[in-house]
Records
---
Amino acid sequence: MANIEPIFDTHAHIMSADSVAYPPSAVVKHTGVPPCTAEELLEDMAACNVTRACAVQRFHYYYVDNSYVLDASRPHRDRLTPVVMLAGQDPQSPDILRDMVKRQAVGALRFANTSDNIDTGWMNAPQTLRLWETAAELGLPVAIIFYLRQIPYNLPAILIIADMFPEMPIVIDHLGIEHAPMAFFTPNERITYPGPPDYAITPALKALRAHRNIHFKLTGINLEFLDAHAIDTAKFVRRLVNEFGAERIMVGTDIGQTKGPYSRIIEGLRRSVALLDADERAKVLFSTANRIFGRTFS
């Protein structure tokens, strides 16, 4: 195990086994994937040489009640950092975020939109921008997920936000590429994946290269989609690093959303960096994420 490169898992969805203490949201969406508790995650991390992880709020289960990721991370500050989610257009969200950060270290704020409407207000309406401003004031990175139909108009919108907050690390979950997770709200929509040589790295995605504060998160669900289309994941990651640089790429299992076992996802992530050199592997597997989220581990 000592010779295996450590991993920072930036995308672990945890859920409590106690639905009374941590009740689900009224708008819960069941994915059919077995839940992963914090205790199970920590055991799997130890077995797989995953030294740190982001405990990402399970938005489709708890919505914006971040109680479990906060409570579960608190006793394990050397291993877990919570990534919380709030409603951008709720005027109370900035104060809620400030209060969270006063009580414990928070790894990041995350934005998502459950609507399939062609709308960017959830990420850039005036009220939402006040929440971005609060995150910047608190020194928090921001993670954001784009679903399939949102990608064409959300990628240009994120450029404007990146210009507004040039010192803030912004992390695009699941790469912002038209992969399976992006079709969550359109499950019957077929995605024709182009494969090599472009690998769905579109001109709109390439336009993000000039914004050095934008980073990309490669996850287990991305790899599953690539495998399903017989795409060599190592060649894909080599192209991704060529486009954006290893210092802007990180990995996450997506456990709790992507079906385990955890070790299988980790093995897939390790295989995906096979064509990178040692320095690039270290950045993608650990140090990029540690630079962005690691300040909470102290």
Note: Strands lie at 7-13, 50-56, 80-85, 108-111, 142-144, 170-173, 214-219, 249-252.
---
Amino acid sequence: MRGVTRPFGIEPLAFLVGATAVGKTRAAIALAEAAGAEIVSMDSMLVYRGMDVGTAKPSAAERARVPHHVLDRVAPNERYDVRAYLDDAEAALADIRARGGQALFVGGTGFYLKALAHGLFEGPPTDLALRAEFEARYRAEGALALHAELAAVDAELAARLHPNDRKRVLRGLEIYAQTGRPLSELQSQWRRPLPPHRLLGLTRPLDELDRRIAARTATMLAGGWIDEVRRIEAATGFSATAAQALGYPEVRRFLAGDLTRDELGAVIAQRTRRFARKQATWLRAFPVTWKHPDAALGELRAVLELDG
């Protein structure tokens, strides 16, 4: 059975994290410029070529100011996962270090942060027949029955999952059926203490963040987001992973006639607000030093200990 991949080296890395729309891009560029550092993206959707407007990807002018890595890696119809990200991030880090540079990891994808710091937990390969069997049972017996079955063999995992979290409930049952061991027990080796990385988080009061989300949504819709989605649909379409990017399902619904133009902005902003709150909650599980984005540059640099 596959276990835990090696985390990145033993020396501390510098991370700038925060919820969507909090102001990470502007702060990261200022920090990297001041220290002569290079930015390694830690955002799961910036890897897709052509998905620029809706992901708020750093512009060509911003990338001219500071080198950026792990952007535009695959087409929107291609699959990209955390293992591919780790390979790309490790290559970027090696390249930066080989030139004597510093790397600043920037983004809000908490799972990427977890994988960079701890390594990547991988259970046994998926048994498609077993997966189909559990899927059929879930449909026939219902969410509560399968969740209760999970609780009987892995109480710790079941306590963390809502019965309607079908994917994770079934994965827990699959792992137990394949290994005879609870997934929570196998994952315990992955939840070891973080190495002494330097983690700076940007945060704003919720009302302030909500206003920024609404304004950014309006700006992106006015700036060509709808045309961007139309082009991608015509050229390649979206992979299952790319299709999950914030706002893209709603724009596709608009193009299909399921939403009006006025409804579109409101629905995207609402979904983004909910996502930002989940991001913030997830990131607060890490030993992050939190600062407002308007804090003095020297104050932010001190947390990251960037030279320059």
Note: The longest strand covers residues 14-18.
